[in-house]
Every structure is written in C-alpha cells, then in structure tokens.
Specification:
This protein is α+β, with helices and mostly antiparallel strands. The protein contains 10 helices and 11 strands. Helix 1 crosses helix 2 and helix 1 runs antiparallel to helix 3. It starts with a helix and ends in a 7-residue tail after the last helix.
Length: about 375
C-alpha cells in the first residue's frame, strides 16, 4: 500500500477508535436496543411528551452509531480499491481511491467534533442575531457581511435559514438582523460564535482610501422546544408594534405588523417582522424571547460562558473574539484558540469549520488522547 494511503487509513482508524470510545460502544448498542423496544411499545405513546423524548434519544444514538459504521465500511471500500489499483498499476483508479479516503477522513474529523456536542441544547435549532457596533455605515456593512457569512455556512451544511428580523443600515448593510438556522446540532456548532467580531480593511466608503476598524456582535440562542419550560411573567414583558421594513409582502410598510418584545428584568429585546400578520410575528417573537432567556440560564450554569456574557456588553475594543484583517495583510484569527488562516475570502464565504471546531474542543477540554 502506498505510504500516503497507509497514513490516511491509520488516521481514520484512530478517529473511529476515538468515536467508539466516546460512545462507549457496547453500552450504546445495548441502550439502542432498549430504546428500540420502548419505541415499539404502544403504551409509550400514552404519554406524548415522554414518547417524543424517547424518540429523540433513539434517533440521536442511532445516527451516531450508523455514522461510525458508515465510516468503517467506506474506509474498507477505499482501502480495497487502493490496494487493487496499486497492484494493477492503475494510477487513475488509485487517485480515485485517495479522493474517496480524503472524504472519509473529513467526515471522521467532523464526527469527532460532533461527538463533543453533549450539552442539553446542542442538538437544537438556533437563532443567530447580528448587531452593528458604533461607526455608522462601516459597521452596518460589516454586520451585513457577517450575516451573509453565517447564512452561507449554514446552507453549505444543509441547514435551513429563515430571516426573522432585519433592520437595514441607512446606506449599506444592516443595523441588526436575526435568522433562524434549522438543522441537527445547529446550536451546538454555532454557540461558540457569540461575541464581538472585528474587521480591519480599506473602506470602500472612504474617498481617501483610509484603513478603518469596524465592530459587530453575534449572539446565538437555542430554539426552545415544548419539553423545556421557561417561566416568563407576562407583566415583565413590554410589547411594541411598528411597521416592518425591507423587502416583503403587501403588508410591509402599511400596517404595524412587526413586534418587539422587551423582557424588562433582564433587558432582553427580541423583534420579528417576517410574518404577514402581527399575530404571526407576536408568536415568533415569544419563541425567540424564550430562546434568549434559556440561553441566559445556560450561561449561568456554565462558568466558561461568563466571559462570553461579559464580551457582549460592549461592541468595541478589548471585547472581540475574532479579528478579520483585510489590510495591510490577509488574516483571520480567533483570539481565544489562536486558530488563524490567510484565506480571508474563504472565511467570509462561510468556511468556518476550523474555528468552530477548535472553539468547541477547547470549550469541552478534550483531545484525542483524552486529556
């Protein structure tokens, strides 16, 4: 076997061994059998909430087990193809086998990180909110670039993206926007992106072509399902209605259909204008508010998230989690994990996995060696 193929095989085998260890393989197989038996028991559905919880646990565990099995099968197929091609001197088929193994290696690396998503809300959908900092047009444009970046990341991973609120900047970009990202582990992947993001570039809006520094903040909250109870006193919530802005249907700019909710005790504000009626927007705004308050509760429970909460208090110097430098050199650097890349365009087009993966691993504190 060629040395590079042997190296990929060894790396994938190491990933698979790690995944089996994290899953506690034999225990997980027995647990899946138990969950399958419970789902097939008709009496389980006498309690719909419990049935839904069991079904979710079963689907999650079955997906993890099937993922490992698929990696093992695809590894065997790729190695067999490489060995046959090597014996026959078929370089074209050998390269095909290499490409297949590279794909398996990438999937294994992502599966390693997904195995770390064990938080109680990691598997949920997510709301992502972007707010521009001080600086007018520059910061609004930067906020718009971030909105595009995360939308592209989400769509590249098969997630559904829905704009729930959008306030345009006066000349460019956005002042604030909220998007709903739906898909497996959306919150788990995105939660480490909360914080202030800093951009350094030659401003396209400055006739003198001077270098400008802009700031925008990202906030991520899990979508709260019906199994999680969030107690909100209605008297603590102020409701405002206003006319929606931006592209939309016939009600845009004609009726007060947009809804803003303010939870006074925590000064938490959410807004929705995506629906065609005030009733629809009110319902969605309440869901968003529950998600935001649940995220606050998760932060209280997790000491490591306290620095994150502090970082949200000021969109400016000294609080950023990541810097995006386009001038005088090209570099994106995460200030928490020290991960960096010179492929700034790739990052702005949504290539964020390396940053998310490093932040997730650092947050959990795990390595391949289990240290």
């Amino acid at each position: 076997m060629r040395p590079d193929v042997e190296a990929m095989k060894a790396d994938i085998e190491q990933s698979v061994a790690l995944l089996r260890r994290r899953l506690d393989w034999d225990v997980s197989l027995r647990k899946l059998d138990e969950l399958n038996a419970r789902v097939e028991d008709p009496t389980l559905w006498d309690n719909p909430e419990q049935a839904q919880a069991v079904s979710r646990d079963r689907s999650r565990l079955e997906g993890q087990i099937n993922s490992v099995r698929a990696l093992e099968t695809d590894l065997d197929d790729g190695v067999m193809l490489a060995e046959m091609a090597d014996e026959e001197g078929d370089e074209a088929t050998l390269e095909e086998a290499r490409e297949q193994l590279r794909g398996v290696k990438d999937r294994a690396a992502r599966a390693e990180l997904e195995a770390l998503l064990s938080g109680e809300a990691d598997g949920n959908d997510a709301y992502l909110e972007v707010n521009s900092g001080a600086g007018g047009t520059e910061s609004n444009d930067w906020a718009g670039m971030l909105l595009r970046m995360y939308s592209r990341w989400a769509k590249a991973h098969g997630y559904e993206v829905t704009v729930e609120a959008h306030e345009e900047g006066e000349q460019a970009g956005v002042k604030s926007a909220t998007i709903l990202i739906e898909g497996p582990n959306a919150y788990g992947w995105l939660k480490s992106e909360s914080g202030v993001h800093r951009l350094v570039r030659i401003s396209p809006y400055d006739a003198a072509a001077k270098r400008h520094t802009s700031f925008a903040s990202i906030g991520v909250s899990p979508v709260v399902d019906d199994t999680i109870e969030i107690d909100i006193n209605p008297s603590d919530v102020r409701t405002d209605t206003y006319r929606a802005s931006g592209a939309g249907g016939q009600h845009i700019n004609k009726t007060d259909s947009a809804v803003r909710l303010t939870h006074v005790p925590t000064n938490t504000v959410v807004a929705c204008q995506a629906g065609r009626s005030q009733h629809q927007n009110r319902d969605m705004a309440w869901k968003m508010l529950r998600a935001r308050l649940y995220e606050l509760e998760l932060q209280k429970r997790e000491a490591a998230a306290q620095a994150l909460a502090d970082a949200k208090t000021d969109i400016g110097w000294g609080h950023q989690i990541r810097s995006y430098v386009l001038q005088p050199y090209q570099m994106v650097k995460d200030l928490r994990t020290e991960v960096e890349t010179s492929d700034t365009q790739g990052v702005l087009d949504g290539d964020l996995d390396k940053f998310m993966g490093a932040a997730l691993a650092a947050r959990v504190g795990e390595t391949r060696d289990g240290n």
